[in-house]
Amino acid sequence: MIKKMGKILAIDDNEDILFALKLLLKPYVELVVTTSDPNEIPKLMGKESFDVMLLDMNFTQDAISGQEGFYWLDKILEIDPGAVVLFITAYGDAEKAVKAIKAGATDFILKPWQNEKIIATISSALKLRESKHEVDNLKQKQKEYTEAIDKPFVDFIGESAKMRAVFTAIQKVAKTDANVLILGENGTGKELVARALYRNSARKDEIFLSIDLGSISESLFESELFGHEKGAFTDAKKEKPSRFEVAHNGTLFLDEIGNLSLPLQAKLLTAIERREITRVGSNKPTKVDVRLICATNNDVHQLVSAGQFRQDLLYRINTVEIHLPPLRERTEDIPILTKHFLAIYAKKYKKNLKGITADAQKKLQQYLWPGNVRELQHAIERAIIMCESDNLQSEDFFLTGSKERCADIDMETYNLDQIEKNVITKVLKQYNGNITQASTELGITRTSLYRRMEKYGL
Ligand SMILES: Nc1ncnc2c1ncn2[C@@H]1O[C@H](COP(=O)(O)OP(=O)(O)OP(=O)(O)O)[C@@H](O)[C@H]1O
C-alpha cells in the first residue's frame, strides 16, 4: 500500500467529495490539497509540485459532457507535461475513459468509488510519477555524460581535399536518417565521424550508444545485443534490456562490424530488417527505432567477395559509405594535427613549448603512420613528456624506422622488372603482407598487385 509519500491535489466542485477524499487519503499520503475552484489550479501548481492530481470532469451543475475537465487537463499538462492526472466522474463510460486517456490523463475513477480501489489507483499513479522522475533524471544524466564524452571529439581537424570531402559528406548525410557505413584504417577517426553525424542529426538530443562488436564474445553476443529475460540461462539472474532498446529513438554505433561471424551477421540482419528485437528467453518481439552507424577497418567489399560478409547485411548498413583516408594519403594534414595535439599535451603536462623544429616536422611528414592519427597523437604526447627544450626535437620522436618512407631505393640493377619486383617486395614487407595497404602505397589496385605478385612469384 502507499507509504506516507506523495503530494496530491484534488479538484472537484462538490465540497463533500473533497472532504471524503481528504479523510480517506490523509493516512497514506504526505499532503492532500483540495479546491472546489479549478481556476485555482495554476496558482496551486506554482506553489507545490504535485505528484498526482484528481480532477473532476464537470464543474458546472448538471453538466455531463466533461468538456471543462478536458479544458483543465490541457492547462495542467501545459504547466507540467509530466503531470499524472486521474479523472473523476460520476458519468464515466468507456468512451469518455478512452478519450480522457488519449487526451493525456493517466487513469479514470468512477463516482461513487470503493475505497480500496481508489487507493490502489492512486498508489499506481504515484509509482508512475516516480518512474517518470527517474526517466527524466536518467535522460538528464545521459545528456551530461554524452556532452562530457563528446568534448574531446569536438575538434575534428583536417584541411586536405580528402578530409574536406569527408566533412561535406557528413554535413549532407547527418540530417537524413540513412544508415551510414564508415570505412577506414585503425585510428583514422571513424568514431569522430560517427559522433559528428550524431551531433548534427535530428536525434542529437537522444542517446548515442557505441558498441565495439569486436570485443563481444560469440557466446555473449545475442544476450548483449538483444538482451535477455530473467532466468533465460543460468547466469541470467536479472532481466537485461537489449542495446537496441536502450538506444531506442537514438543512434547506435556498431564499431568493428567486419569482425562479426556469419551466424551473428544473420541475427543482426533480422533485427535491422524487422526493426524489432526479441530478448533471449522471450518470444515477444519489441519494436525499436534506431539510426544505425557502422564502422570497420576491414575491406568489407572484399569480405563479401570472399563469402565472409553477407551482401544483404552490407546493403542494409551502407545506404551511404564514408571513406576515411589513411594519414599517409593526406600528409598535408600532419602539421595542423601536430599543432593541435601539441597545444593539448603541452597544457596537460604544463610544458612551455614554442613548437616543433623543422627537422622534427620533416620526420613526421616522412613517416607512414600505420596507426594513423591515433599514433600521431600518442607520438606527440610521448615527445612532449620527453622533450627538454623549447621546441620538440627530432630525437623526441621514437618512430619505428622500418615504417619510414624510403627516400631512395638501392639501384643494384637497372632492369625495370627487377626494380619493380624489389619495390613490391619491400613494400609488402613494410606492411606485413597487407595487400590493401601495400597496393595503396604503390598506387595500384589490389588486382594489379596480385597480378604482379604472381608474375614475380612473390
Ligand atoms: N581528424 C582528426 N582530428 C582530431 N583528432 C583526430 C582526428 N582523427 C582522429 N583523431 C583522434 O585520433 C584518435 C582515434 O580516433 P578514432 O577513435 O575516431 O579512430 P577510429 O578510426 O574509430 O579507430 P579504431 O578503428 O581503432 O576504432 C582519437 O583520439 C581521435 O580524437
From TrEMBL:
Matches recorded under InterPro entries: AAA+_ATPase (IPR003593), AAA_lid_NorR (IPR058031), CheY-like_superfamily (IPR011006), Homeodomain-like_sf (IPR009057), HTH_Fis (IPR002197), P-loop_NTPase (IPR027417), Sig_transdc_resp-reg_receiver (IPR001789), Sigma_54_int (IPR002078)
Hydrolase keyword on record: no
Annotated Response regulatory domain residues: 7-126
Record bears the keyword DNA-binding: yes
Residue list for modification 4-aspartylphosphate: 56
Sigma-54 factor interaction domain: residues covered: 156-385
Signal peptide: none
This protein's name: DNA-binding transcriptional response regulator, NtrC family, contains REC, AAA-type ATPase, and a Fis-type DNA-binding domains
Gene source species: Williamwhitmania taraxaci
Taxonomic classification: Bacteria, Pseudomonadati, Bacteroidota, Bacteroidia, Bacteroidales
